[in-house]
Amino acid sequence: MIIIAPLLLLAQTPEIDCEEPMTQMAMNHCAFEDFKKADRALNAQWTLTSAAMKERDKGDAPLDWDDRPGHFDTLLEAQRAWLKYRDTHCRSEGYIARGGSLEPLLVSSCKAHLTRLRTADLEELARTY
User: Fold this and answer.
1) What's the half-sphere exposure (Cβ side, CA atoms, 13 Å) at 69?
2) Residues 63-75: pLDDT tens digits?
3) Distance between CA 87 and CA 18 in Å, rounded?
4) Mutual orientation of helices 103-127 and 24-59 as an angle, nearest 10°?
5) Pick from 6, 37, 12, 4: which is nearest to 109 by CA?
6) What pTM was computed for the model?
7) Alpha carbon distance 67, 84 (integer Å)
């Protein structure tokens, strides 16, 4: 019976309408779904941009005087730093409502916003050159 009770609760959970979320829990859910959508777009653009950077690396002639990393390695380093920045920055934005029911909405909304901006940056980088 203990195993069945959580399943019954899941079955009774109403569908959340993200066009007009009516509760804080629904708003939090919808903000997280919006972030996940933005993150999927970022990952798709990452695939394109990283492939473009690898192609640029292939076209670069070796430079005896330049030991800096190539296009892809530099992009990868920047992306890792950006992810840490995004997550930490948005956590701090959430602290406005630290511990409250609004905190997840603030964090997810911040992450969605910054993720869309980064996606646009990656698109532009892939078009450059």
Assistant:
1) 10
2) 777 788 999 999 9
3) 24
4) 20
5) 37
6) 0.84
7) 26
